[in-house]
Design a protein that fits this description.
Length: 219
């Protein structure tokens, strides 16, 4: 043993060994805590920081905040109903115009696809030019056959302007618009003939019908 070692009190030598062991123990505990917390930290970063687009569960575009529909615009009840609404001029919505018929067909099929919940969904076509509907189109998309209510624009210029602004807000004028029972526009869907996209829209609608019955009036 060296002279220098003899000059170190035994109590201090023991304390140094204990401190070293304590530091190693603390580091091991820290690494263990980090390993356990890693999945939580990763999920937090993914949701709140990176927010990948692919992580969303809805296909339709959520309207945030929801855009209230004024019941004075039309002489029919929207409050208490789930409504799929589309706006097209009758003069363009003929048997030869596939782009218009695709929208009507998609809405009709969505209502059929929700099965026993179909009574909770009403279909509305706003005839934006007020002209007579093509008889062939009317035969396929009337109230009795397909559950469509065909309405014209409000006659009052102020109400008409309000509705058109509401309809076209955020570029949604040509899309299918979903109105909740409050009533307010809360989601919009693209017009599509893709079976995959139809399935995605159906899932959105089914989820909303399953999770939310608040304010409904099925009479």
């Amino acid at each position: 043993m060296s002279d220098k070692e003899l000059l170190i009190p035994a109590s201090q030598t023991d304390a140094s060994a204990i401190n070293a062991q304590t530091r190693r123990g603390r580091l091991q505990m820290l690494f263990l805590l980090l390993a356990c917390a890693a999945p939580v930290i990763a999920s937090y970063l993914a949701y709140y920081v990176f927010k990948p687009e692919g992580g969303k569960t809805n296909f339709g575009t959520l309207v945030q905040p929801a855009q209230e529909l004024n019941p004075a615009w039309f002489d029919m009840p929207f409050k208490g109903k789930w409504t799929l609404l589309v706006a097209r001029p009758a003069s363009e919505c003929t048997a030869k115009n596939e782009s218009c018929l695709e929208a009507l067909f998609l809405m009709r099929q969505l209502r059929i696809a929700v099965g026993r919940e179909s009574g909770r969904v009403q279909l509305v076509w706003i005839n934006t030019d007020g002209k007579s509907v093509d008889p062939e189109v009317l035969l396929a998309y009337d109230q009795k056959t397909a559950g469509f209510q065909i309405l014209t624009l409000p006659t009052d210029p102020k109400l008409k302007g309000e509705f058109e602004a509401w309809l076209n807000r955020d570029g949604a004028g040509q899309k299918i618009q979903l109105i909740d029972p409050s009533p307010a526009k809360m989601m919009v869907f693209p017009v599509t003939n893709s079976p995959k996209e139809f399935g995605s829209i159906k899932k959105d609608l089914e989820k909303l019908l399953r999770l939310n019955r608040k304010g409904e009036n099925l009479q």
